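Marked as duplicate of an earlier ticket. Keeping the data here for the record.
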Amino acid sequence: MHATSTRISGYSLAIDTSAGTSVAVLSMGTVLAELNFPEPMTHSERIGAAIEQVLADANVRPSQISQVVAGVGPGPFTGLRVGLAAAQFFALGAKADLVAVCSLDAIALDYFAANPGSKALLVSTDARRKEVFWASYQAVTNGIPVRVLGPSVNKPEDLNQFIDLEEHERTDLVVRAASLGQIAFSQSLTELGPDRDLTPIYLREPDAVPTKPKKVSG
């Protein structure tokens, strides 16, 4: 769900825990500070201190944040919910606008920025269980990656059923929250505005499934 176009004033805080942990502070789409930790499985230990650090590095107070940008995946259940909870908690405390960006879009933005002549891109990240999360893109328009297919989750050997792998460049870049913030700013300049649907993109059931209670006879 997109909102009507709203120009963002003040500062933005972007958060993503779809793979590693990434946070950034931006002003009108310009990155002021960012921290990126590629290691998965440490989101809850890092996220609070990382947010405090980027705010300090950018010399920005929490009350100055007018927009919080959350990466909504795709990603594993446990990792995604840490970042989304942090984004929602911060936005509530700061009375900031809360918007969502697909995490794979951030990778596409960075790749096209470094390779401006590229026209077809396959972005994939580790989904565990010998699968990948993926999406395909066709350049960037007005600062927003143009997604053609996805996001989806499949085994790597099955991707050729959906796209022509020979015609797509591939990248192993990581998700940067800074790029999420830049996309959200670009979206705020469009008629549709930024996406406010914070529904996480899991694409499959959680890795950890609660054990069903055993029946007790008697």
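See parent ticket for discussion. The beta strands are 11-16, 21-27, 30-37, 65-71, 97-101, 121-128, 131-141, 144-154, 169-171.
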